[in-house]
Design brief:
It is a peripheral membrane protein. Belongs to the FliM family. The structure is a single chain. This protein has about 325 residues and is α+β, with helices and mostly antiparallel strands. It has three domains: about 35 residues, no CATH class; about 190 residues, CheC-like (Chemotaxis protein chec), CATH 3.40.1550.10; about 70 residues, Surface presentation of antigens (SPOA). The chain is about 35% helix and about 25% strand. It is built from eleven helices and ten strands. The strands form two sheets. A six-stranded antiparallel beta sheet has the order 1-5-6-3-2-4. Helix 3 runs antiparallel to helix 7. The chain starts with 7 loop residues before the first helix and ends in a 9-residue tail after the last strand. The relative contact order is 0.12.
Length: about 325
């Protein structure tokens, strides 16, 4: 067990107590001899660090935002989803915590091994179904009598939401989630052993006037290959942009070359008063600040780029480039 590090204020308080006689040094020695025992429940093994749990929470914060947008568009009503908690518990405890009859979607997440569970509270599931069928989003708890049509509609809605899960996890792993099973009784689902540690992400969900929870159960065996990527160190490393491949550079260059630009040649400039402007008439002459022997300025999207001289090419007005303006400097170098 690592030694506990005291802060400066705690050290000062301890020295003050010893000097004033409030604490006996011999008493401290006796306390040090006593072995400090930390209770550990082997049935509730903590296999994820706090750092990894925070990373999972951050991923699903993003997933909740994407899911809110998706369901709002599909159901055409107000949908608000946010992460309520992220816990690691035994699989058996998760199964006992959800209703006896509920909506369970089982997904495979290739190339990762194992499967994950999405549990939709009946209030939420039937509010969604009511909206799909043209209702106001009212919830009717009759899970035990799901019809084939209801099952199909729900499955299609949940299956289309998988793109959001794939996008949310894209920063850590490229997964391809596929809906494999649709159940209403959790007792029929035995994904892993009862004592296997799972991460349960609970999402507060509000659809119109109905509210409930969406629980995501992710077994440890699924996340085991990518656990190193759930650390802060990995996230900080990946903040730096990756080096592009040669073919990517070529593709970007090819597309940039096709981008249109506006070219304009400045013949000269002049400034006049408002009074002079009001009395301008036909055949009046305005003097420009451009000498006839000096080169003209060519601008690319209003940014000075070249010095040019006017002329003609095949009976069309044209300009010939003389020099490039570097760094936006108007002076000829």
């Amino acid at each position: 067990m690592p030694d506990e590090v005291l802060s400066q204020s705690e050290i000062d308080a301890l020295l003050s107590a010893l000097s004033s006689g409030e604490m006996d040094a011999n008493q401290l020695k006796e306390e040090e001899k006593d072995k400090k025992v930390k209770v550990y429940d082997f049935k509730r093994a903590l296999r994820f660090s706090k750092d990894q749990i925070r990373s999972i929470s951050r991923i699903h914060d993003n997933f909740a935002r994407l899911l809110s947008t998706y369901f709002s568009a599909q159901l055409r009503t107000y949908v608000d989803i946010d992460v309520a908690s992220v816990d690691q518990i035994p699989y058996e405890e998760f199964i006992r915590s959800i209703p006896t009859m509920t909506i369970l979607n089982v997904y495979s997440v290739a190339p990762l091994d194992g499967r994950i569970i999405f549990e939709f509270n009946p209030n939420i599931a039937y509010a969604m179904l009511d909206r799909i069928l043209g209702g106001k989003g009212n919830s009717v708890n009759k899970i035990d009598t799901l019809t084939e049509i209801e099952t199909t509609l729900m499955s299609q809605l949940f299956e289309k939401a998988l793109d959001n899960l794939q996008e949310a996890w894209g920063t850590v792993a490229e997964i391809d989630p596929i809906l494999e099973d649709f159940e209403v009784n959790p007792q029929f689902l035995q994904l892993v052993s009862p004592n296997e540690t799972v991460v349960v992400v609970s999402l507060n969900t509000t659809i119109g006037e109905s509210s409930g929870m969406i629980n995501i159960c992710i077994p440890h065996v699924v996340l085991e290959p990518i656990i190193p990527k759930l650390s802060v160190h990995y996230w900080m490393q990946n903040e730096n942009p990756k080096e592009r491949k040669p073919e990517e550079y070529e593709s970007i260059s090819r597309n940039i070359k096709k981008a249109p630009m506006n070219l304009s040649v400045v013949l000269g400039k002049s400034s006049i008063t408002v009074e002079e402007l009001l009395f301008l008439d036909k055949e009046d002459t305005i003097l420009l600040d451009q000498a006839i022997e000096d080169p003209l300025l060519l601008e690319v999207d209003q940014v000075p780029k070249f010095f040019v001289q006017p002329g003609k090419k095949k009976s069309k007005i044209a300009v010939q480039v003389l020099n490039e303006i570097k760094g936006g400097d108007y002076d000829d170098e």
